[in-house]
Amino acid sequence: MKTKIITLESHDNLISVRDKLSWAKTPRILLVWPKYEKVSLRLLDLKVLQRHADSLGAQLGLVTRWNNVRRDAESLNIPVFDSTSSAQKDAWLESPPRKRRIPKPPQVDLRKKRDEVRIQEPAWVKSLLGRIILFAIGVLSVLILAGLFIPRAQATLFPESKMVSAVIPVQASLSFNSVSLNGAIPAQEIFIIVDVEKTKVVTSRIAIPKTKAKGFVQFQNLSSSEVTIPAGTIVATVDLIRFETLNRTVLTGGVNQIVEVPIQAVNAGEVGNVDAEKIISIEGPLGLSMTVINPEATSGGEDEDAIGANENDRAVLREETLNELRLLSETQMRTELADKDFLIVDTLELKEILVEEFSPLENEAGDSLTLIMQAEFSALYVFANDMQTLTSSYLNASIPEGFSTIDEMQFELLDTPFTDSDGVTRFQLQISQNTVKQVDVLQVFNVIRGHNLQNAKDELVESFPFRQEPQIVINPSWWNFLPLIPFNISVEVK
Question: What is the pTM of this model?
Fold first, then answer.
């Protein structure tokens, strides 16, 4: 059947997708989700799109690996496929057939029917003795039926249990396309952006720049041409302590011509007090036509002592904030993934710091320090279905004969995952699952029915291996015998 394939983009919404559906002229429309980007379509949006497709005379289908979208689609009976090729090969779900209306049977005139089938009672039935006998038989029948059908019993069994486990060498990589019995499993990558604002009290004392150092420099011409030195021209020391000229000055043309210009430190503080002959560089193209030097030391730069964050305070707060962001990213990743998807926590890494803002700024006073940070983290994870495929073959071989699995399978990393140069993450995974001895329920019925409460427990203990004494509850509580009818006995295995 002809199918229209519509590939969605991350910016698509209900309106844009609805418009795309309207242009389709095929009996089937297939919406394809992007592999690594989300599309903001909720359950209600899918329902609207399904109705719109129905109005167009088309059936709607999806291709997506996002678990939340698959669940929403399945709740609306929208077929979901793993790929476009499977959607074109596999059968699409059909709408459930409408229930047939069953006509009501014709009404019968009961009075007329009674008169037609009226039967004469035998003479003995009309006698007093006959009526007493019939009454006694009726009461006895009711009592027998009550004894058979009214009592009910609940038996809870705790059969022998064994924990089975296996160790699997796992190789996870983004380059793997399918699960292999040698331990290879396709990995997926998830990205998350988190942000946090963190504040700490500081007690350190720092030097706060107060005034700017001043002095003068000499520019020496290296050419025969006249050179104009604009105000604000930047000169600096070898260790990049920067100064700016205060006046516009013209350097006379001719080699070795000299002019003196007043300067001021760009940044306030004692750092601007430099020794003589330390200012030797000129920023910009002017440095090609002249040299600079300070014949005397600069002076006047002063600091004042105040409470404020030093470099150690900033480094400590930065590290604490990054650790908090890491924990927050792991939590949000688990929220984004399906319940049973396996997150490889040890592959969690910081991709990029997007925002890092300290307040107050460096060299500013303050008794507290605040850091606003936003960062992107990534990690590898494995789909639950792929993990189940890999582990089932290993675990099934370890289950003892006559036992069956209960509870969910447990996973535990035995070592730290290591990613080699080929992008393959290797680790050992221990899987374990609880199993119980299989119990033949029919045999349980045959053992306990009709017995009194204590005898029933004794018979069970003798017939089956239990890790805990079985529990039997009879209703009504004053009745001490188990029902004879099996369907009045319910058995629960834990």
Answer: 0.48
Domain boundary among 259, 278, 305: 305
Give the pLDDT band (50/70/90) at residue 119.
Answer: low
Residues 281, 278: Cα–Cα separation, whole Å:
9
Containing structural domain, residue 235: 207-305
111 against 98, higher pLDDT: 111
Kindly state the helix (H) or strand (E) to which residue 50 belongs, with its residue range.
helix 43-55
| pLDDT per position as a tens digit, 89-101 | 877 876 444 333 4
**118 phi, psi to nearest 5 deg:** -60, 125
Residues 21 and 56 in one domain: yes
Are both 75 and 126 inside the same structural domain? no
| Same domain membership, residue 119 and residue 48 | no
Whether residue 393 lies inside any domain: the answer is no
Whether the CB-CB separation of 178 and 185 falls below 8 Å is answered with no
Which DSSP symbol is given to 12? -
Say yes or no: 214 and 301 in one domain. yes
Residue 372 falls within a domain, yes or no? no
Q: How confident is the model at residue 113 (pLDDT cuts 50, 70, 90)?
A: low
Concatenating the DSSP letter of every residue in 85-120 gives HHHHHSPPPPPPPPPPPPPPPPP--HHHHHHHH--P
**CB-side exposure of 354: number of CA atoms within 13 Å?**
11
Question: Is residue 204 within 8 Å of 277, Cβ to Cβ?
Answer: no
In angstroms, the CA 369 to CA 226 distance is 51
Residue of 434, 433, 429, 449 whose CA lies nearest to 489: 449
Number of domains the chain contains: 3
Give yes or no for a contact between 278 and 178, defined as CB atoms under 8 angstroms apart.
no
Give the strand pairing for 188-201 and 368-382. Answer: antiparallel
Distance (Å, whole) CA 329 – CA 348: 9
